[in-house]
Design brief:
single chain; alpha/beta; five-stranded mixed beta sheet; 5 helices; globular
């Protein structure tokens, strides 16, 4: 038995009821969501969508990184995306710790020196969100007809609050 046996068993059950076979991969609701990797976030559920409705890009802090921009360009031109939501969240570790704190904690956990690792700490979450929205809107390969907005997801209530 591997450490993954429980997940493989769950996958077999999932596959027995799988109904997305042959899906075309287009975002049927025209939505892309950039959000945090935090497990308290259900990107589709929080806006009433289902698998196949949206493209999801997740990373620590829900930042618009070069990789997120790459995904958004592809999404807007090839995968039916016409609306982009950027959604950081309350009580995010990336916005409530310093770079030094995270490096220390990772060093302690790993037994390795993590002083060289960058974690992209966010000192002002709303300013970062405003910058990220501006970055998307200014990108020459994101159509100006694409609706772009920034929200903060409250992990304690499930509500979105629009900020940008």
């Amino acid at each position: 038995m591997t450490d993954f046996e429980d997940l493989l068993a769950a996958n077999r059950d999932f596959a027995a009821h799988f109904d997305l076979s042959g899906f075309d991969g287009v975002a049927h609701a025209g939505v892309a969501i950039v959000t945090c990797m935090d497990s308290r976030i259900d990107p589709l559920g929080m806006v009433g969508l289902q698998p196949g409705d949206a493209k999801i890009f997740r990373n620590p802090g829900g930042r618009v990184t070069p990789q997120a921009l790459e995904a958004l360009v592809l999404g807007t031109h090839l995968l039916g995306v016409s609306r982009i939501l950027v959604v950081p969240h309350t009580r995010c570790a990336m916005a409530s710790h310093t770079e030094d704190e995270l490096r220390r904690r990772v060093s302690e956990s790993s037994g390795q020196d993590a002083s060289w690792q960058s974690f992209g700490v966010i000192t002002d979450q709303l300013a970062a969100l405003t910058d990220d929205i501006a970055k998307i809107r200014a990108h020459p390969l994101i159509p100006t007809t694409t609706d772009v907005a920034g929200f903060v997801y409250d992990v304690d209530t499930g509500l979105l609050e629009q900020h940008v």
